[in-house]
Write a structure and sequence with these properties.
four-stranded mixed β-sheet; alpha+beta; globular; 8 helices
């Protein structure tokens, strides 16, 4: 008989960060998204990578709460947020910086990213429980991003750029008042 010992998995809440108060944009059934909530995280991306911009556009579309603010890795703000990180390290992956200034990069950023997105708690739990697999998958996709970028149409990249630019404008200045 084989003695199999299981290591207990870390406790991970499947509850979304916002509990859904009546004033909350995450309360089920409420269509309006409040624009007075501060962004909870900064997502740093490579502005010279079409696949990266397209992927960011998809994340921002999912982020109906507007909890993430995009910042190009090549910007002065990124220099401040990623102090001490070499340019090569900066451009090797995307980075998520939370309100406390904690930087998570590559696959390690996915659990926190998914905690910020509506209905993504199961993905947050999965990526938190399989960090090596998540990082390997991220590194494989990132290592082939120029190949993936060729599959993304110019129109899709343009729409992603518009979504990114819309997120940088105040909510009330965005077109039609809808979240970007």
């Amino acid at each position: 008989m084989v003695d199999v010992r299981h290591t207990p998995l870390p406790e991970i809440s499947l509850r979304q960060p916002d509990s859904g108060t009546p004033e909350s944009p995450t309360r089920p059934g409420w269509g309006a998204v409040r624009d007075d909530l501060s962004m909870r995280a900064t997502l740093l991306y490579d502005r010279d990578c079409g696949f990266c911009r397209w992927s960011l556009g998809k994340v921002l579309a999912w982020d109906r709460r507007r909890s993430m603010r995009p910042v190009a890795i090549q910007s002065e703000e990124a220099d401040r947020l990623l102090t001490g990180m070499s340019e090569q390290e900066r451009l090797a992956s995307w980075h998520l910086v939370d309100e406390t200034g904690t930087v998570r990069s590559a696959g390690a950023a996915f659990p926190e990213l998914f905690r910020l997105l509506p209905a993504a708690a199961p993905l947050a739990a999965l990526t938190a429980r399989a960090p090596r697999a998540t990082d390997r998958a991220y590194r494989w996709v990132a290592g082939n991003r120029s190949r993936w970028g060729r599959l993304v149409s110019d129109g899709a990249k343009r729409r992603a750029d518009e979504r990114i630019a819309g997120r940088l404008r105040p909510q009330n200045a965005a077109t039609s008042g809808r979240p970007t």
